[in-house]
Each structure stands twice: as structure tokens, then as C-alpha cells.
């Protein structure tokens, strides 16, 4: 029997309308389930329910909130294989990566269970005699969460968990293509001991449900991860109504390979960073900037690795790279591959549609030799498409790495301590990797970027408190 993924509003499951197939990008003939969408009125009801529940939830003890988050984290961890399988089928990430993501979602809830017990404050003496000052953190209120499809368990987890830990209530809208993961997460959250209305799931399109969240008068803050175009649109709307907002958007992340690098490690970093998860990570390395002295050797070795990659169904045991997540994303990838050819970049490897068996969105990973100004070297593609760019030396490589509108993550492969230290200081990015792929971050430390990649406070780790709390300064005369 096919599962129907429902919304969850004010403690009730809501079927929604326009029942639609939830597609399996690895096998279009075996859908994951089906789902209905809610309308703007239902979305406003969810914000209203969150508003009603907020003061009560904020008044719970840190231990009560910690217990709820810990229960959610424990169940996700205990069921990581099952949740990972759902994720693999719905998003197309190979099974081991999907199970890893489910485990990470569980760990994030457990981390914030601990953070609920460690909400920081300060106590200072006043400049006036007999007066004391306390600086405390309070919840922001009702937080809207708009999430993308590429990490359908981990990204919602790293927004929902801190929101609840600090006493906020939540209205969560997943991307339309991953309602199953959102529903599974909501189902676990619904049994964790939260009061009705403290957590709500609204399934529907960005245009209707996303816009309705933003328009709801009861909303106090919005956390968004997605495309630059949508993020910028939300930023303008949020500014117009004075809404606190946090945006994680695109990347065009550079990985520099210097001549002194351990070449095996550098090739593996490039392969993993550029192509794993089908290149559908905002931290993916899409610009491989390679010192000229080792450029040809690097390209040859990377091509050999690419030739050995097995592209196939997400749940097949021998799959290295799963399908592209959707027809829309596949069209975008193919269109950029054509753009690359048209603008004179040379296709060194791949870029063809593949047919490994079941009907799905399979694409051979592509590697271009490009010039820094090419569109494929400047615009985010969000697929298994990377380009290699030569650089005369470290200084030119750094200049090329920083010459982008984005600033999410930047990597370098080198055995030079001098260059590693210089790069960590001078890379214009929110995250820097030395001898590691640009994608793949820890769940307990700050995540976020600079320039066009991000806006507002950082996510994750204890830095999440910046967005999910507001500071109060209290003066007391003895
Ligand atoms: P992508 O291209 O990766 O799908 P989007 O920015 O379109 O990125 O989508 C990210 C999230 O933003 C999804 O949940 C989507 O439904 C939502 N979204 C898209 N358009 C809007 C909008 N106008 N208002 C609010 N949310 C939106």
C-alpha cells in the first residue's frame, strides 16, 4: 500500500488536497508515496497554533525541552537505517550517505538537547553604584522554517532542533519533492511530548505555503535554505515587514590544489567534494583550481577516478553516485553542460545521460576545463558538474578562489604550512578546509558563508543561539 504523507497542524494530521505522487528519482515507476498540499489559510492556522503554544513552551524548564529533543534524537538514531532508506528513495542519495545523514539529524537533536541546558547569559556590574545587570537570552517567538530538498533530514533538523531548544515554536515547510522525509520527521516529533501547536508541518509549494508563512502576522523569524533567487526575494519581503531572517543560499566553492599537495589525497578531495551526493550540496567543490605544474597529472588522475564511478539507483549496493534529484534539476545540469560547450570550455569527461536500468534521472558526472570567466565557472549549477582551472602559483590560485560572488566554503590541498595558514586567513569564505573536501561538515560547529552565500546569523553549534534567541538586558537596583 502506498503511504500518504500528511501535514501536521495544531497537533492534528491534515491530508491536504491535490494528492500528488512523491517521485523516486532512481526509479520513476516505483514512487515513494503520495502527498497532499495545504492552502494559505491552513498555513496561517499553523502559524496561529504556533503562536498560541509559544509562551507555554517557552515557560517549560530547560530539562523538559532537553528531554523532548533527546527523545527525538534517540528515535532518529535508532531508526537511521529505515529513515536513510526513505531519504535515499526520495532524494536519490546513495544509501550509506543517506543513513549517515539520518544519523547526523539524530545527533543534531541530541546536541541541542544539551544546549537547552546551557543557555548562556552574563552578569555584570553597572557603571552606577548599587545596580546589577543581567543579560539573558529569550526565545524569538514563532519561527518559520523553509527548507530545500538536498538534505531533507539534516537541514530541517539543524533548524528545528535549536528553534525548540531555545523555547520557540515552529512552522516547517519542506521542499515539495521531499514530503516523505518531512512527514517521517514530523511523525517522530509528534510523539516526543511537545504541546500541540509547538511544531507544525505544512506541505505545499513555495509560492503558496512559503509565501503564506512569510505573510502570516504571527511570524517572528524566518530561517531559509535554498536558491539565491528565492532567498533574495524573501529578504526583500522580510525587510519590508521588519522580520528577523537567516538565509543560506548558493556556493561556487573553490578547491585549490598546489603542486606540493599529496596528489592521492587531492584527487580524492576533488572527487568527493565535487561529485558525491551527485554534486547537490551547497558546499560542493565546483571550481578545481590547480597549480599549472601538476594540472595535467591531476586531471588525468581525476578522470581515471571518474571512469571508475558507478552511477546507479540510490539503494543499490554498488552505487557511488545516485541520480539527479528531479527532472527540473536534471534540465538545469544539462543546460549548463550545453552552456559550457557553447562558451568554449572543453568537456574532459562525462556529461551524458545514462541508462543503468530503471527509468530515472541518471547523469554521468562531468568535468570541464574552463576559464575563470565562463558561466560554468561562475554560476552555481548544483549538479555533478565541475570545472578545472589552472593557476600559475598560490597567489594566483587564491585570487581566483576569491573572485566570486559567493563565499560559503573554500578548500586547499597542500603540504605547505605557510600556504595553509595564509589560506585559512585570506580565503573569503565562511568555512575553510585544508586537505579535506569542501563538502562534509561537523554537526556541532558554526555553518554558514559570506558574500552572496548567506545572510544573517550563522547556523549550528552554539552560534545557532544568535538567530533563535533575542537578548535582554535587565538592570536591578539593590
Ligand atoms: P531549489 O531551486 O533548490 O528548489 P528554491 O529556493 O526554489 O530552491 O527552494 C527552496 C525552498 O524555498 C523550498 O522549500 C521552496 O518550496 C521554497 N520556496 C520557493 N519559492 C518560494 C517563495 N516565493 N516563497 C517562499 N518559499 C519559497
Brief digest:
By secondary structure, this protein is α/β, with parallel strands linked by helices.
Describe the structure.
Helices cover 39% and strands 22% of the residues. It starts with a strand and ends with a strand. The chain contains 14 helices and 23 strands. The longest helix is centred in the first third of the chain and has 22 residues. A hairpin with a 2-residue loop joins strand 2 and strand 3. The strands form 6 sheets. The chain has a 7-stranded mixed sheet with strand order 15-16-17-14-13-19-20, sandwiched between helices. The model has no long low-confidence stretch (mean pLDDT 97). The chain has 2 domains: 271 residues, Aldehyde Dehydrogenase, Chain A, domain 1, CATH 3.40.605; 181 residues, Aldehyde Dehydrogenase, Chain A, domain 2. The protein is globular. With 478 residues, the protein is α/β, with parallel strands linked by helices. Helix 2 packs antiparallel against helix 4. It binds adenosine-5'-diphosphate.
Amino acid at each position: 500500500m502506498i503511504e500518504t504523507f500528511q501535514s501536521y497542524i495544531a497537533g492534528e494530521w491534515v491530508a491536504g488536497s491535490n494528492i500528488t505522487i512523491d517521485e523516486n528519482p532512481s526509479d520513476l515507476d516505483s514512487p515513494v508515496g503520495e502527498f497532499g498540499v495545504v492552502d494559505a489559510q491552513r498555513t496561517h492556522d499553523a502559524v496561529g497554533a504556533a503562536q498560541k503554544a509559544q509562551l507555554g513552551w517557552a515557560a517549560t524548564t530547560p530539562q523538559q525541552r532537553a528531554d523532548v529533543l533527546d527523545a527525538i534524537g534517540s528515535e532518529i538514531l535508532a531508526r537511521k537505517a529505515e529513515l536513510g532508506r526513505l531519504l535515499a528513495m526520495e532524494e536519490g542519495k546513495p544509501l550509506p550517505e543517506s543513513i549517515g545523514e539520518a544519523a547526523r539529524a539524530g545527533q543534531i537533536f541530541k546536541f541541542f538537547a544539551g544546549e537547552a541546558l546551557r543557555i548562556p547569559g552574563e552578569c555584570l556590574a553597572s557603571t552606577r553604584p548599587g545596580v546589577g545587570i543581567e543579560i539573558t537570552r529569550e526565545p524569538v517567538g514563532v519561527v518559520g522554517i523553509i527548507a530545500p530538498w538536498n538534505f531533507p533530514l539534516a537541514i530541517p533538523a539543524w533548524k528545528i532542533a535549536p528553534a525548540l531548544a531555545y523555547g520557540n515554536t515552529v512552522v516547517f515547510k519542506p521542499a515539495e519533492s521531499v514530503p516523505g522525509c518531512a512527514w517521517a520527521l514530523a511523525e517522530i516529533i509528534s510523539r516526543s511530548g511537545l504541546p500541540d501547536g509547538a511544531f507544525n508541518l505544512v506541505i505545499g509549494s513555495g509560492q503558496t505555503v512559503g509565501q503564506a508563512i512569510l505573510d502570516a502576522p504571527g511570524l517572528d523569524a524566518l530561517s531559509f535554505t535554498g536558491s539565491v533567487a528565492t532567498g533574495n526575494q524573501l529578504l526583500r519581503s522580510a525587510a519590508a515587514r521588519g522580520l528577523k531572517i537567516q538565509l543560506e543560499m548558493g556556493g561556487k566553492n573553490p578547491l585549490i590544489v598546489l603542486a606540493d599537495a599529496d596528489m592521492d589525497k587531492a584527487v580524492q578531495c576533488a572527487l568527493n567534494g565535487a561529485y558525491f551526493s551527485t554534486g547537490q550540496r551547497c558546499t560542493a567543490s565546483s571550481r578545481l583550481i590547480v597549480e599549472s605544474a601538476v594540472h595535467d597529472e591531476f586531471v588525468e588522475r581525476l578522470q581515471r577516478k571518474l571512469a571508475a564511478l558507478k552511477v546507479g539507483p540510490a539503494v543499490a549496493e554498488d552505487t557511488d553516485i545516485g541520480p539527479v534529484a528531479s527532472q527540473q534539476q536534471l534540465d538545469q545540469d544539462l543546460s549548463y553542460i550545453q552552456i559550457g560547450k557553447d562558451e568554449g570550455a572543453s568537456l574532459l569527461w562525462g556529461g551524458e545521460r545514462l541508462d543503468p536500468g530503471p527509468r530515472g534521472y541518471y547523469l554521468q558526472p562531468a568535468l570541464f576545463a574552463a576559464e575563470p570567466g565562463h558561466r560554468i565557472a561562475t554560476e552555481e549549477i548544483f549538479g555533478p558538474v565541475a570545472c578545472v582551472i589552472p593557476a600559475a602559483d598560490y597567489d594566483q590560485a587564491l585570487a581566483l578562489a576569491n573572485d566570486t560572488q559567493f563565499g560559503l566554503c573554500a578548500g586547499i590541498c597542500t603540504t605547505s604550512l605557510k600556504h595553509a595558514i595564509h589560506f585559512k586567513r585570506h580565503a573569503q569564505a565562511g568555512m575553510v578546509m585544508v586537505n579535506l573536501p569542501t563538502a562534509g561538515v561537523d554537526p556541532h560547529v558554526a555553518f554558514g558563508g559570506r558574500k552572496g552565500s548567506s545572510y544573517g546569523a550563522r547556523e549550528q553549534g552554539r552560534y545557532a543561539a544568535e538567530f533563535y534567541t533575542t537578548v535582554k538586558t535587565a538592570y536591578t537596583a539593590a
